[in-house]
Amino acid sequence: MTVFEAAPGEAPPADAVSPRESTPDAPTSIARLNATIRDFVAQWGTVWVEGEITSWNLRAGNVFARLKDTRSDAQISIRVWSSVRARIPADLAVGDHVVAAVKADYFVKAGDFSFTVSAMKHVGLGDQLERLERLRAQLRQEGLFDPARKKPLPFLPHVIGLITGENSDAEKDVHRNAELRWPQVRFRTVHAAVQGDRCVPETLAALKTLDADPDVDVIVIARGGGDPQTLLGFSDERLVRAVAAATTPVVSAIGHENDHPLLDDVADLRASTPTDAAKRVVPDVGEQRALIAQLRSRATTRVAQRVAHDIAQLEQLRSRPVLRDPDPLLERRAQEVWLLASRSRDALGRTVDRAGRRTAELRASLRALSPAATLARGYAIAHRDDGVIVRDAADAPAGTALTLTVDRGSLRAVSEGEVAEAAAADRPGARR
């Protein structure tokens, strides 16, 4: 049988039964049970644990917080007394990844089990930043930060996809400032965790949903400010590559101006704050109305100037003498036309006369040389039926059918042969 001694000042009643000796007829007291648990826990030494801060409440200089395991849902309650708090980093907050030296502690009065922290520090922040810089260099070498691959934002998106924390200040800032600039703007908001283990998978799922929506023209990923540890999710390689592969333009609005996760480099537009994102995504309706009024005024002025210029030119043309009294000019031109027409008629008449005389001469020459003139003097042309013209009496022996062409018509004849006297007269050397 083991007997646990009570701590000084908290001794159990003298008649209390040890927990191991308790029976239904002789139960132990709660004070004795709690003292026994406390004494057992007090034997544990200090251990170093790693986890994520999920709550951090400051009361009367002491901190009451909870640590969550980085790979499961297991959690523990921790207490940081004011004397220890002065020795740990002052910037510790919810979402930080830390290692802590803890010792188990059991409070007898409340039956509360927790761990007292004697030391705490950030986990590998320097190593994480170094890994981020190596990843940044790799992505830059792959061209994911190249301005040429960034997609332009639409002038006036019909629907804005928004990925942010539920009921967050970032969501309110984006909605309020966008609606102030363009009251008819529409949002499709998908909430996601903006820190912790759920940040990356939920943001990836939200990005996939909005990128697949044909109505969404631009996607804004927004989160308020925070320490580098809480913004690590927005430098995750999976998320960065998913944003680079998205077909819809993506705007990064993470933290404040000095915050610079990798998402800022790969996004199509980096906004310094969620408020700045709202101003960059939608135009200001007042500015656009003023611009339209200015353009209309400029257009009206230019048209008025052009009309006035054309009127002045028309008046200048009308004031010229030739247009003011065009009759003298027309009279001079009419006289010139009459003279030119007269000369043309004279020249044409002379040309016709010369051509007539030349035609008469050619007609007389043609008539003199024409066979018809010879036939008119009583001559005839004799040709056989085969078309051969008879030039020698020997070509038409007796009985040859002949056609005789005279001045007026043709007639048929039959040759009786060569006439002796005529033939003798036609022989060379004959007397005539």
Detailed description of the structure:
The protein has 432 residues and is α/β, with parallel strands linked by helices. Among the domains are: 44-123, Nucleic acid-binding proteins (OB fold (Dihydrolipoamide Acetyltransferase, E2P)), CATH 2.40.50; 127-147 and 155-283, 3-Layer(aba) Sandwich (Rossmann fold); 373-426, no CATH class. Helices cover 41% and strands 21% of the residues. The chain is built from 13 helices and 13 strands. A five-stranded mixed β-barrel has the order 1-2-3-5-4. It has a five-stranded parallel sheet with strand order 7-6-8-9-10, sandwiched between helices. Helix 4 (169-181) runs parallel beside helix 8 (274-281) and helix 5 runs parallel beside helix 6. The radius of gyration is 61 Å and the shape is elongated. Mean pLDDT is 84; it is low at 1-9.
